[in-house]
Amino acid sequence: MRHRVVIGLSGGVDSGVSAFLLKEEGFDVIGVTFILNKGQDIERVRKIAKVLDADLKEVNLINDFEQKIINYFLEEYSKGRTPNPCALCNRLIKFPELLKQAISLNADFISTGHYALIRREPFGLLKGKDPKKDQSYFLSLVDREILRKTIFPLGERSREEVINLAKKIGIDKFVSFKGSQDVCFIEGSFRNFIKKTLRDKLKRGLIKDLSGKTLGEHEGIALYTVGQRRRLNVATGIRQYVVALDAENNEVIMGRFEDLLRKDFIVNNVNWFIDESEIQGEVKVRYHTPPSEARAIPIGSGRVKVILKEPLAAITPGQLATFYIKDQVVWGGIIE
Question: Is domain 262-335 given the CATH code 3.40.140.10 in the classification?
Fold first, then answer.
């Protein structure tokens, strides 16, 4: 008897090729596509499923996605924090809903097109083999009991291999090549999206330096993030960066690059993949930067203190921190 797997089909090249690989391995593959907004191109997903000769189930999650992801995203920005909606969606929407569908369809596993690996015994979430595409960072908030039932067909493959396979099996005409780390609900300018959706909450305020001196005015703290140095409209004669956002006083705080450097920070809502303990390893605080050597010390209430070997710039409140020992994810959480 063949094992059945439910795979999330987004219309992207990665999930499409993943479904093909699962069928090649002999799985009974059922595609599930989540409708997250009214303008979503579902027809593209239907064409991919037809080429792959896979059943497709369409699930409307517009309300859940708006309440749990979009509203959270906007609320965090309005507080001067910089959220990671993709990681939160994986935890609250995509993986739990895939498991729910798998149970209803009597499937044995779930699957997605992420570039990551699952080790069965002992269990572990591992980096994908392609360092340019590894997406374990975005998966570090997902419940490990769900990941135990997950297959990642692309974990051993490179992006180039995947694109070539898409052409070989004939789905390249339909799939999107947009990366899964992009914010899927924003079309066009991020700044314009924030201005439009938070127009009632954006309030002009002061830009100050660390001494409290006023340097200018800002258009609303939701339009800024820690580490930013463009669109500041402040002339001081030296290169300035956003070093903090004071939501309580509606102020943007500026400083030099060295003012961005930190040797430690706190992470909350930590999702552990091993038994909780003090550990030495590496921490990654944003997707496109390499991990840094660090020690992680649990301090209670789901929080961890991270002490860096070398100072790191622009550690941003609200962002995702993922801790590794070599290629294994140890935990993920949100930077305070």
Answer: no
Tens-place pLDDT, residues 299-315 = 999 999 999 999 999 99
pTM of the model: 0.94
| Active-site residue, from 17, 141, 154, 184 | 184
Residue 237 tokens read as 């004669």
**Catalytic, out of 30, 48, 74, 89:** 89
89 is catalytic: yes
CATH superfamily for 202-259 is: Adenine nucleotide alpha hydrolases-like domains (2.30.30.280)
For residue 52, pLDDT over 50 is answered with: yes
CATH number assigned to the domain with residue range 4-169, chosen from the 4 options 3.10.560.10, 3.40.50.2300, 3.40.640.10, 3.40.50.620: 3.40.50.620
List, for residues 242-256, the tens digit of each pLDDT value: 999 999 999 999 999
184 among known catalytic residues: yes
167, two tokens? 């052409």
Nearest Cα residue to 186 out of 56, 52, 32, 74: 74
